[in-house]
Amino acid sequence: MGADSASELERRIAAALDRIAAGLERTPRPQAGETGQLREALEAERSANAQLTERVRAIKERQESVVAGLERRLARQTELLDVQGLELQRLKKSVIQLREANRVLREAQEAGLADPAAINRSLQAEVEGLRATRAAEIAELDEILAELRPLVGEGGDA
User: Fold this and answer.
1) Gap between the terminal Cα atoms of the chain
2) What is the pTM assigned to this prediction?
3) CA 20 to CA 12: how far, in whole Å?
């Protein structure tokens, strides 16, 4: 850096400082009463900021509570769907067994042979089918009740 550029830099800095000093002299100084008003305004803004911060915190807590409730509800619905799926599989299996037992009975009837064991298997398959149907219906009712419980709880609180 040469001497000319250093002196130019010093001159520019001095000019900037002079402009700043002139600007400060033109800026009116707050009066004693104005200082108090400014402090009151600052405190009011701080109070409003604190209130807003508290509101944001409360909203965040409510949001987290709602999300947690929805997660619990989703877990319960998933569990109910799993149970219902298992019951439907059981029902399908029972229907297949019942169809097979009925086929055997039809064939025995067509051949003119009465087979007590086939009749017994058919009746057992039918009973199992009825049990599976009942279990599937119970699973479905549990799912419906799980949906209604929050609504009944909300209505009772109002």
Assistant:
1) 81
2) 0.47
3) 12
